[in-house]
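From: lab user (bench 3)
To: helpdesk
Subject: output format question, protein + cytidine-5'-monophosphate

Hello, I'm new to running complex predictions and I'm not sure whether the block I got back is the full result or only part of it. Here's what I submitted:
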Amino acid sequence: MKNTELILALDTENFSSAEDLLSKFKGIIKYYKVGSSLFTLEGPKVIELVHKCGGQVFLDLKFHDIPNTVKNAIISAQKLGVYAVSLHISGGARMIEKCAGIAKRPKLWGISVLTSFDEESFAMTGFKNDIASSMSMLSDLGVSSGLDGLVCSGFEIKMLRNKFPANMDIVAPGIRLGNANDDQKRIINPKKAKELGADFIVVGRPVLNSSNPEETVRAILKELE
Ligand code: C5P
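Helpdesk reply: Thanks, we reran it on our side. This is the complete output you should expect:
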């Protein structure tokens, strides 16, 4: 079975709470996701902090703009030395190709349909097809344009795993240990994500809001063994 790595989402309020979290998991978790809320407030010093603690960064800013602007954003991310970045596949082939052409760049992970969508809320955005077929079309476009990985919910891991070669990273957020009572709709547990073939799982609130984050991380890592 494939090795599945945990990416901890550093969705903390500020730099100092990110520092607290990193000090807890230094040497235990290798990958950390820096998203729009912490990065908007604190900027590149968060990335330096992760690197200082020996970790690697998935910069999850979900870029979506004209090709030249996104290309320059990826070049900036490259200067920060991040491991991977996310970009919306719906930005189109030209946008992804421009980014894929950058030498020695971070991995490009494509966003298709967010895990917070269910069929009803997705239909309201104007897409004509259901989530699975939209995801299938978008992932074909993304992979043929040069992506290194696809972000998807647990519901689509199997389809994408079967469709693409083993070196295409499959990255699954929407991970829950029990039931979700929040904005995530298409959820799955760590063990199932591993069985289906995810390379990475992204976990935020189940750890951040846990009364015992260390124990929760231990439980997740055990499921991934
Ligand atoms: O707290 P939770 O475990 O839901 O966190 C999931 C993280 O993954 C959030 O930071 C969210 O922005 C991110 N994410 C996601 N769905 C995607 C891509 C990223 O939930 N498709």
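A quick orientation on your result: The chain has one domain: 5-224. Let us know if anything else is unclear.
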